[in-house]
Amino acid sequence: MNELILVGVVSSLDDIRYSPANIPIRNLTIHFEDSSKKHFFKFVEFEINALVIGDLVKEGFKINETYQFKGFLDRKSKKSNQLLFHIQEYKLRSK
Q1: 3-state secondary structure 32-72
Q2: If we measure between CA atoms, which residue out of 19, 82, 29, 75 comes closest to residue 51?
Q3: Interatomic CA distance for residues 90 and 71, integer angstroms
Q4: What φ, ψ does residue 56 adopt, rounded to 5°?
Q5: Distance CA 57, CA 32 (A)
Q6: CA angle 90, 21, 30 (to 5 degrees)
Q7: 59-88, pLDDT tens digit by residue?
Q8: CA-CA distance, 60 to 27, in Å (whole number)?
Q9: Which of 14, 20, 34, 84 is the most buried (most CB within 10 A)?
Q10: CATH class for domain 4-92?
Q11: Which of 75, 76, 61, 74 is nearest to 31 (CA)?
């Protein structure tokens, strides 16, 4: 099963664009940092490129806010090996 749940901060946010079928699409970057260190033997920090499509785009994101994201990983394109996080659900998290 390809499912990813990630709590992170929106570090960058592209403008909304539209597919040829007029479906809204938005790219963003999520910054993850493990500050608890409870479950890891080392400090983990990374950024991941993400994509939101459809009605979720209209709900809106804010830069520097913490969200819980749920979705899946897929290649950026058929010819690319870069991964892209496709967000299917998200909710604002308190810090």
Answers
A1: EECCCCCCCCCCCEEEEEEEEECHHHHHCCCCCCEEEEEEE
A2: 29
A3: 9
A4: -60, -25
A5: 21
A6: 25
A7: 888 999 999 999 999 999 899 999 999 999
A8: 12
A9: 84
A10: mainly beta
A11: 61
- CA 75 and chain centroid, separation: 14
Rounded Cα distance, 30 and 51, in Å: 10
Cα separation, 70 vs 4, whole angstroms: 6
User: Distance of CA 38 to CAs 30, 33, 43, Å?
Assistant: 21, 13, 10
Say which residues have a Cβ less than 8 Å from residue 32's Cβ, sequence separation at least 6: 6, 7, 8, 9, 44, 45, 46, 47, 48
The Cα 40–Cα 60 span in angstroms is 32
Model's pTM, two decimal places?
A: 0.85
Residue 52 CB coordination number (10 Å)? 23
